[in-house]
Amino acid sequence: MTRSDIIATLAVRFPHLTPKDAAISVKEILDAIGHSLAKGDRFEIRGFGSFGLNYHPARTGRNPKSGEAVLVAPKYVPHFKAGKAMRERVGASDQAKPIRQIA
To answer: Is DNA-binding given among the entry's keywords (predicted)?
Structure first.
């Protein structure tokens, strides 16, 4: 599901919302998540999950073309952890199939 799919679903489900109002609502929610993460805070939606940051320390990587060792700087990467209710809902779904098998 894409951002435009979410907007269309909101506009259909809540007829008093115009597609423009639904788009503004979705944008504000996603902006709030982004601003929260940018400040280093955690963003939690009860029953759905939480967004946070995971720290990846500096490491030595390799340039795949030349094989040369390259220092990869430390960084924070966004991370989503599904809440218990969401995990149970997805696990019970008939549609829940692995996207790819890990060997």
So the answer is: yes
Q: What are 34-42's contacts with CB under 8 Å, separation 24+?
A: 37/78, 40/76
Q: What is the pLDDT along the chain (103 residues), one digit of tens a residue?
A: 999 999 999 999 999 999 999 999 999 999 999 999 999 999 999 999 999 999 999 999 999 999 999 999 999 999 999 999 999 988 887 665 666 656 5
Specify the pTM.
Answer: 0.73
Residue 90 CB neighbour total at 10 angstroms: 11
Q: Which fold has domain 42-97?
A: HU Protein; Chain A (4.10.520)
Give the separation between CA 77 and CA 33, rounded to whole angstroms.
Answer: 14
